[in-house]
Amino acid sequence: MEPHRRRFVITGAAAAAGLAACIAGPALASSRRALAAMTDGPFYPSRAWRERWTDWDADLTTVQRDGRTRVARGEHLGLDAVVADTQGRLIDGAEVEVWQCDVMAVYRHPGVSAEPGHFDAGFQGFGATRSDRQGALRLRTIKPVPYPGRTPHIHVKLRHASFGEVTSQLFVAGDPGNARDFLWRQVAPQDRPALEMALQPAPAASGLRWLVRHALAVPA
Questions:
Q1: Distance in angstroms (rounded) separating the CA atoms of residues 70 and 77
Q2: How distant is the alpha carbon of residue 168 from its chain centre?
Q3: Which of 17, 31, 82, 218 has the fewest CB atoms within 10 Å, i.e. is most exposed?
């Protein structure tokens, strides 16, 4: 696969079929503004530190360590997304990283205590994947929770040869804490829809509590 290639959105039935498995077409079409750039924050784990661990896949809700499988506490959330630029062109091979705190409001980071009982051992805290040929990707995590001074959010970083690197955050649409969050207030009103995750109840058989379908818009 050529990692720098952009794939153009095809109109009509072919486009609907290609996107149906991951995200609804209207959501992709509505996100014409790129994700607002935001800071890594103090808890972005360095690559060198992450590589000390073996379980940094796209499922943040299970941790395999010491021959045991641990499952994350909290409300499990499926994030189905499509990476597309502001012209609506789908991007394949984009590296997508996410990180967030667990239900105890603790991040996985070398600067945070790893004492047993201080954090949720069933939550990875960080995950990564790549978009496929239709720009689609899937992550499994938990519904973000607030911590002192911040509204619930998920950090996201995207990399690709066509647009470089974009770092932003995804917020829960309608959460009352958003209006009090200092970073949310710095985002221009017209840029906020691209950062808002609309949570929907997940099908009972999915093992999830919530499902999000979201477009991750990057510069053209």
A1: 17
A2: 9
A3: 17
Mean pLDDT computed over 172-193: 97
Q: What letter does residue 93 receive in the DSSP assignment?
A: S
> Under 8 Å CB-to-CB from 189, ≥6 apart: which residues?
none
Show the tokens assigned to 6: 């952009």
Residue 38 phi, psi dihedral angles, 5° rounding: -140, 165
Please give the Cα distance from 191 to 176 (Å, whole number). Answer: 18
Average pLDDT, rounded, for the chain: 86
Q: How many whole angstroms separate alpha carbon 96 and alpha carbon 80?
A: 12
Greatest distance between any 2 Cα atoms in the chain: 54
> Which pLDDT band holds residue 47 (cuts at 50, 70, 90)?
confident
Record the pTM: 0.86
CA distance 195 to 154: 10
Read off the amino acid at residue 78: G
Q: What is the pLDDT of residue 45?
A: 85
Structure tokens at 190: 């017209």
Give me the helices (H) in the chain, please.
13-20, 25-30, 47-50, 182-186
The bridge status of strand 164-172 relative to strand 196-197 is: parallel
Helix (H, G, I), strand (E, B) or coil at 178: helix
Dist. CA 153–CA 178, nearest whole Å: 9
* Residue 72: exposure state from Cβ atoms within 10 A (0-12, 13-18, ≥19): buried
Task: Judge whether 156 and 216 are in contact, CB under 8 Å.
Answer: yes
